[in-house]
Amino acid sequence: MIHENSETPSTASDVPTAGERQESAVLDVQDLSFSYSGRPILESVSFELKAGECAVLLGPNGAGKSTLFSLITRLYDHRQGTIHVGGHDLRRESVQAHAQMGVVFQQPTLDQDLTVAQNLAYHGALHGMTPGEARRRAAQQLTRLDMQDSLRLRVRHLSGGQRRRVEIARGLLHEPRLLLLDEPTVGLDITSRRTLVEHVHRLSREQGVAVLWATHLIDEVYPEDRVIVLDHGQICADGSVADVMVQTRSESIGDAFNRLTDGEVS
Amino acid sequence: MSLVAYAHCLRGVVGRELLRFVHQRSRFVAALVRPLVWLFVFAAGFRMALGVAMTEPYQTYILYEVYIVPGLVGMIQLFNGMQSSLSMVYDREMGSMRVLLVSPFPRWYLLICKLLAGTMVAIVQVYVFLAIAYLYGVQAPLMGYVLILPALIVTGFMVGALGMLLSSFVRQLENFAGIMNFVIFPMFFLSSALYPLWRIREGSYLVYQVAALNPFTHAVEMIRFTMYEQLNVSATLVALATTAVLLGLAILAYNPARGMAARKGGGE
């Protein structure tokens, strides 16, 4: 489905009802708009994510990706449009909606003075877990990310890539249905970036978590990914990598991204 | 979420704040040095010049060191409350505040947990200070050290909520210096922490009026009276009411739908 900055023609039978959307979609964003000081940041953004789906939110700097994340995590409140997480309205049922999302923010948010175990225990408590339950899940998630030996290490002694993996373990600690990652590879070297991207794809496949990965780096897109291209606050393309390439008559996803955004491929 | 889950959330937030406090020993030392300098140096030096006559809740004439201790307890809490709000601005800049705010608990509850955590840290410092003051010779009735606890919690919440409210207005860490100059120092010096209100009145009626209106004065008096096993009803009521108002405003300020978070919008 390519929008090319225009509304996609659809028939009434194509459009699922709100109830149908909320049942099937882990994340359901409909007609979301947001302005700041009268300047539109997002305009009529709509998309859905299903369980096990890995979607890359591509957009140049300033496209509105971080704002979209802030709205989905309810750091900012939306006034136009709707956001449902696991069928729960983010504004009216924020407790239930937040319980179903794990978030990895663009900025590192681990407490560097605390150990990995203490950071994860804190996150577990923020989700109402007992210390024992948090310990058990922390060990489980860190093992999946090949970080099982780091539990007692202070975060400040970890490399950038290891910290990011701990943040992903933290985001998954409460077993969310939706994992949001806002440019998580910023500041990482190529090897760490590649490892991280691979980890997240594997987690999505194995655990059935819906993943929304915001980035402006084309090489983080896998051929099997769904791509949502955001530019100037609007979704200008939404589909599989192959679909986006075909419909923009491009030879690579990088070319397609360039054509859609008039931007530079990173 | 069950009540047990709420309790685990509270345990987690308070535990993290205490752990951070333990790891930042220099912060603990700095927090203690300030009131101890006032007690050992300022009070000793000004004892003769600022001698205090018999005044409630004291039963007899007292030394200036004795008078100043409840004010210094308030000072510890005031600076700690502002330190907490400073750390909230820092956490917000660094992003770790977001981790708290995307937790699946009501935001008002998360903010109260955060306030309680900051208050607990301040109370630990207060009791260490009081122990040193006790050894120095400033000794209140032993029961007073127990009765003071609720007053410390109320004061901790009051200054913490004020700090939280201010932190919602401060976008950058650099702007926080203004808070020190325009909030902390006037609040402390224009209160009964260092001099009784009657003595301030003798010096300047205007300053006396400002000090009498200052909620921090009432917090200090609440602490002073409870420390000597008495209840200052009016001071306690003013402190409680101020705490309730500031807490409501702080929660409102961090509400994404209505407060500063909403007005700040979402530029990248």
TrEMBL record, chain A:
GO terms for molecular function: ATP binding; ATP hydrolysis activity. It comes from the Bacteria. Residues 27-257 form the ABC transporter domain. PROSITE patterns: ABC_TRANSPORTER_1 (PS00211), ABC_TRANSPORTER_2 (PS50893). The keyword ATP-binding applies. Residues 1-22 are annotated as: Disordered. Keywords: ATP-binding, Nodulation, Nucleotide-binding, Transport. Coiled coil: none annotated. InterPro entries: AAA+_ATPase, ABC_transporter-like_ATP-bd, ABC_transporter-like_CS, ABC_transporter_ATP-binding, ABC_transprt_ATP-bd_su_PQQ, P-loop_NTPase. PANTHER family: ABC TRANSPORTER ATP-BINDING PROTEIN (PTHR42711), ABC TRANSPORTER ATP-BINDING PROTEIN NATA (PTHR42711:SF5). Belongs to the ABC transporter superfamily. NCBIfam families: PQQ_ABC_ATP. This is 2-phenylethanol ABC transporter ATP-binding protein.
From TrEMBL, chain B:
Keywords: Cell membrane, Membrane, Transmembrane, Transmembrane helix, Transport. It is found in: Cell inner membrane; Membrane. The chain crosses the membrane at residues 28-49, 61-79, 108-136, 142-166, 178-198, 231-254. Residues 26-257 form the ABC transmembrane type-2 domain. PROSITE patterns: ABC_TM2. The keyword Transmembrane helix applies. One of its GO terms (molecular function) is ABC-type transporter activity. The keyword Nucleotide-binding does not apply. It is a multi-pass membrane protein. Pfam families: ABC2_membrane. GO terms for cellular component: ATP-binding cassette (ABC) transporter complex. Belongs to the ABC-2 integral membrane protein family. This is Transport permease protein. It comes from Halomonas cupida.
